[in-house]
Specification:
It contains five helices and three strands. It is of the alpha+beta class and about 120 residues long.
Amino acid sequence: MAVESAQWTDAGHSMILAKIDGVEGIFVPNDLSNRYRQRVETWRLAGNTIADPAPPTQAELDEIARRADLDADPGKVDIVQRLRTANSAQIGTWIDNNVTTLAQARAVLKAIVIYLASRGV
């Protein structure tokens, strides 16, 4: 098994993206009990370098900012906290008691959509 290249996938050095035996895109965990990681380590000790992770693209930075904005929305935070602790009957009762106008329905729908968008749904 010949390692041809290796690059860390993140600053925390938890995973390596390697080209081994002509196959690109092999993800190797940073765990020396892993046979691929052992090969990469042998390759590194032979004088090769595991490259630093590539900087994030503008699209990746934009997605990180988008998700942070969605996660910070107070309506999303409130509804998520309610949903995490409620059962289906409690959710139904809360909606029956608190969503009685179109404006309230819009607010709840907005919070749900923001939550779903923050999860990439």
